[in-house]
């Protein structure tokens, strides 16, 4: 029997599910497809351990709570920064984030947020090709804490902020649109995050590989993308992409 749950140990990887029909080539609504952003500079920070190792460090209690909610695993990441572990999981039944926090006693703890998903609404799309051409600019925007302010051109851009829009700007325009489309006319709470790293240390003359994950979510929708950029260079970004984008509707309340 295939184990579609997140691994309880780092040597059990789980098999990603591929639920639902494909996303349409163009928006079915009349609101437009969303802004295509300019790429920002990616500020890399090292995670201590692989995603499987970090997941194992979260411990069996958190693992069991997450696995009880998600159904089958679609995609996920886990990372350790400054000694604190976090994880993001897209499952067939729920979207779950695990974030470090401080409990009432002042001790390190984790907050688990789960958005229950309507499996019948799952959609996915494969996006390949090059990112948008980079516009001439004095300097690339930094992506990360302390980034200089930018001048976003839409309400959604202002809600996402320069770090997230700078990251999105590296992705092909179609992927950017699929991720943003459900949130264009919504002004409720919007959660978002991204994670990226370069496997290995050698980049060669053709550039390196960039692995990425990201999500946008509110109380109505979740969008998620994961994949690989090829030929990555700091000054030009990836030369080409292989990405999968997912979308699902939220049902019920966060739990």
From TrEMBL:
Residues 1-12 have a biased composition (Basic and acidic residues). Residues 1-42, 128-159 are annotated as: Disordered. Residues 136-145 have a biased composition (Low complexity). This is Uncharacterized protein. It comes from Saccharothrix variisporea.
């Amino acid at each position: 029997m295939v184990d579609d749950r997140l691994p309880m140990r780092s040597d059990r990887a789980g098999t990603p599910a591929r639920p639902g029909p494909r996303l349409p080539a163009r928006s079915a609504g009349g609101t437009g497809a969303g802004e295509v952003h300019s790429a920002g500079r990616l500020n890399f920070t090292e995670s201590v351990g692989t995603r499987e190792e970090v997941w194992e460090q979260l411990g069996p209690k958190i693992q069991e709570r997450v696995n009880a909610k998600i159904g089958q695993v679609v995609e996920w990441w886990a990372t350790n920064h400054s000694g604190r572990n976090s994880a993001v999981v897209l499952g067939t039944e729920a979207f779950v984030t695990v974030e470090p926090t401080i409990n009432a006693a002042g001790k390190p703890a984790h907050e688990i947020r789960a958005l229950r998903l309507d499996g019948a609404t799952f959609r996915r799309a494969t996006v390949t090709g090059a990112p948008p051409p980079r516009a001439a600019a004095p300097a690339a925007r930094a992506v990360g804490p302390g980034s200089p302010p930018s001048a976003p051109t839409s309400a959604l851009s202002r809600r996402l902020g320069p770090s997230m829009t700078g990251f999105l700007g590296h992705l092909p325009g179609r992927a950017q649109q699929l991720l943003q489309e459900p949130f264009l006319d919504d002004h409720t709470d919007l959660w978002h995050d991204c994670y990226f790293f370069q496997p290995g240390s050698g980049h060669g003359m053709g550039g390196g590989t960039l692995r990425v994950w990201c999500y946008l979510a509110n109380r109505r929708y979740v969008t998620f993308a994961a994949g690989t950029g090829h030929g990555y260079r700091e000054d030009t970004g990836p030369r080409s992409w292989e990405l999968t984008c997912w979308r699902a509707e939220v049902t019920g309340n966060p739990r």
